[in-house]
Design brief:
Strand order of the largest sheet: 1-5-6-11-10-9-7-8
CATH class of the largest domain: Alpha Beta
Distance between the termini: 56 Å
Number of helices: 15
Number of domains: 2
Largest sheet: 8 strands, mixed
Number of strands: 16
CATH superfamily of the largest domain: Bira Bifunctional Protein, Domain 2
CATH architecture of the largest domain: 2-Layer Sandwich
Radius of gyration: 28 Å
CATH topology of the largest domain: BirA Bifunctional Protein, domain 2
Helix content: 25-40%
């Protein structure tokens, strides 16, 4: 009787099995292609960062910092705390400053994708090891930069075939505007303090704007009557916002003005947005402006805008909408077939010689009969099969079979690469 497996993947962290790789590769490849053709450059940052980086940028009272970070402790310095990265933007800005990317011509356009870690209660579309696609544009203050980020998200989802999209969008105004809005929110929510959830009572004293991000139904009723930001922000931010909406109208990108949208991180200013599918309250992603973040981490005042998109949620939506993907499997130029132990050893050598010459070569060295190997070659749609038996192994020859016509002939081993390339028209 087989021994029962006792080890499981950690709660909220899932294996991506071979049968699921098609969707993952399709989304990542489509995203990367759009980013590259839009002049974004790839950047990768460590999965482990200083805990202080996120406390300073995301906000000490944010849910990310207070509830959702995986903390690590350095063995050689108990005071130094690290975390598994919960988001991309602070790490990318840290890299931007650390490696002197600020000297590059503006805008600096960067993209990345990979795993993030949030310690929350796993549920549909919410896991502890999630994966995101990320775009950042640093150095341009114009609303056209905001529009470009949103348009690239729109292009991605259209390319993937996702239907029923709309963007919820708001403006938070400048830092000075936020101070005025904060006072208004304190005055308003203080009148309803007894009805707020315990988390929002803490938020009201430490970061009132974050009350607007609460998902508690009781708090949502109170939030619905809160002051609208657009009525209290500075004129420059209003103009920025109206110009952005004009770009979106020009591009026919559907959006909904959501005056209560704030996002859950302290570094946002002016534009904030999230993207949804109709009849679903789960955001596929979101982003906005963070013009003060680089200065907060020791750099010069530098405007910036970005977006993060949840890979698991995108794939879940594609499956729900029954979107078929082209799971293209590369076809080999050659399929190597061997008969006998001596021939198998020769096949190992020939396999490397052919691959090193740039040919795409496949094989099934574990199969023994020629019929089963020919079936495998046919299934993989190989252009040619090379057959080596005991006789060929001794004589240093090989049989080349045209898989389309079935015609085969014998050639010298040393002429294999040249002969195959000629037959492929190279």
């Amino acid at each position: 009787m087989s021994k029962k497996t006792t080890f499981q993947s950690p709660k909220g962290m899932h294996d991506i099995l071979p049968e699921n790789q098609g969707h993952w590769n399709h989304v990542i490849n489509t995203f990367s292609e759009i980013a590259l053709f839009s002049s974004y450059q790839k950047i990768d940052t460590p999965m482990v960062e200083s805990a202080e980086l996120f406390a300073r940028t995301s906000g000490e009272t944010s849910d990310v910092v207070t509830k959702e970070m995986f903390y690590l402790e350095a063995k050689d310095d108990k005071k130094q705390k690290f975390v598994l990265r919960p988001e991309f933007t602070p790490g990318i800005v840290r890299a931007y400053l650390q490696h002197g990317l600020k000297s590059l011509p503006k805008p600096v356009k960067l993209y990345t994708y990979g795993p993030l870690f949030r310690y929350n209660q796993p549920q549909a579309g919410r896991v502890r090891q999630l994966h995101q696609l990320d775009l950042e544009q640093i150095g341009i203050n114009a609303p056209s930069a905001d529009a470009e980020i949103i348009s690239l998200v729109w292009d991605l989802f259209n390319r993937l075939g996702i239907q029923g999209l709309n963007f919820q969008i708001n403006t938070l105004g400048s830092s000075a505007s936020r101070e005025n809005i904060t006072k208004l929110l304190v005055n308003y929510f203080s009148l309803h303090q007894s009805s707020l959830c315990p988390d929002c009572k803490v938020r009201l004293s430490k970061n009132p704007m974050r009350v607007l991000d609460c998902k508690n139904k009781k708090c949502q009723t109170i939030i619905a009557e809160a002051p609208h930001f657009i009525d209290h922000i500075d004129d420059e931010s209003k103009q920025h916002f109206y110009e952005l909406l004009e770009y979106l109208d020009e591009l026919s990108i559907p959006y909904i003005l959501n005056p209560k949208l704030v996002r859950g991180l302290d570094y946002y200013n002016r534009t904030v947005f999230e993207v949804f599918v109709e009849n679903d309250d789960m955001a596929l992603g979101g982003g906005g402006r963070y013009d003060g973040l680089i200065n907060l981490l020791g750099g010069e005042n530098t405007p910036a805008v970005g977006v993060g998109l949840g890979l698991e949620r995108i794939i879940m939506t594609m499956i729900q909408q029954k979107i078929k993907i082209d799971q293209h499997t590369p076809t080999p130029d050659i399929f190597l077939i061997q008969l006998g132990s001596a021939a198998k050893r020769k096949c190992f050598k020939l396999l490397h010689e052919l691959r090193n010459s740039g040919l795409k070569v496949s094989s099934s060295l574990n199969k023994k009969s020629i019929s089963s190997q020919l079936k495998a070659a046919d299934k993989q749609k190989a252009r040619f099969a090379i057959i080596i038996g005991q006789k060929e192994a001794i004589e240093q020859t090989l049989i080349v079979r045209d898989m389309k016509t079935g015609v085969q002939d014998t050639i010298d081993w040393e002429k294999a690469v040249q002969e195959i390339n000629q037959r492929l028209g190279r």
